[in-house]
Amino acid sequence: MAEETEPESEAKVAKKAKKTAVPEAPEPEQALPTAGEIRTAKKAELIRWTERYGLSQEGKVDDLRKRLRSYVEKEAAKAVEKEEEKPTPPKEAKKPAEKPKAKPKPAKKEKAKRGKEEEEEPEEKVHEPRAKPKLEPHMKKLLAFRSAKNAQRPKFRRQEWFRYRTFNDAWRKPQGGQSKLRRHFSYRWNLPSIGYRGPRAVRGLHPSGFREVLVYNEGQLEGLDAATQAVRIAHGVGTRKRELIEKACDDKGLRVLNRMVTE
User: Fold this and answer.
1) pTM of the predicted structure, to 2 decimals
2) Strand-pair partners of 213
3) Distances from the Cα of 179 to the Cαs of 173, 182, 192, in angstroms?
């Protein structure tokens, strides 16, 4: 009898174990390694990844990285294709928009006030582009070359400009007998020389290409060429005369480089 009861008790224990056993959760899908991770990973980690994805483990570290990169690229391409194949969800039918409620009509007095305000509002001024000179193609090239030369030119400072407060950035030629700057030692900065100059044909021209003419009164505007010359009003000219000069320039089509600012 004892022998019969033993297998019965074992069977009951097994049934209880089956009932109480927790179902194993599926392992979460691990994300594919990125290109940066593959580049910085060591050999042990690379071998572990190749085992996980069923790739060959032969060769050096570079070979393993190449295999992993190609595998990751293929998987990414497959994921993109699957997303494209998914059918787009049907668009929901748009509900007819509700008509806005009619606003109460304004009174006649309010209409009259609005009409006056609209009439009083000044019209927006149309933007007038600045006048440009008529230049030949080779002159345009020289102006562009001059601007590039100006950008490359270093700032020439006098010797020991950083040592004394009384010295400013203005250039002074070094005169000392033992001066390393005067003797062109390699660890000193360059001195001004003729090679830093711009092209002679465009020397003294305004960046726009005009040749500047300093003007003190209206009489000096006679005989100026609007295609090649521009006006710069002198600093000492007052507001009344300046307005007259600017008006005369507008009539003759001349460009004013330092026009008076009015708000």
Assistant:
1) 0.48
2) 231
3) 11, 5, 16
Residue 103 to residue 27: CA distance in whole angstroms: 64
8 Å CB contact between 25 and 32: no
- Distance of alpha carbon 253 from alpha carbon 78, whole angstroms: 67
Q: Specify the DSSP element, H or E, that contains 251.
A: helix 239-252
In eight-state DSSP terms, residue 218 is: G
The rounded Cα 241 to chain-centroid distance in angstroms is 44
Digit-coded pLDDT (tens) for 47-70: 888 888 888 888 888 888 888 888
CA distance 119 to 263: 21
Letter string b/e over residues 207-225, b meaning 16 or more CB atoms within 10 A of that residue's CB: eebbeebebeeeeebeebe
Q: Dump pLDDT digits (tens) for 111-156.
A: 666 766 666 666 677 777 888 899 999 999 999 999 999 999 999 9
Cβ neighbours around 135 below 10 Å, total: 18
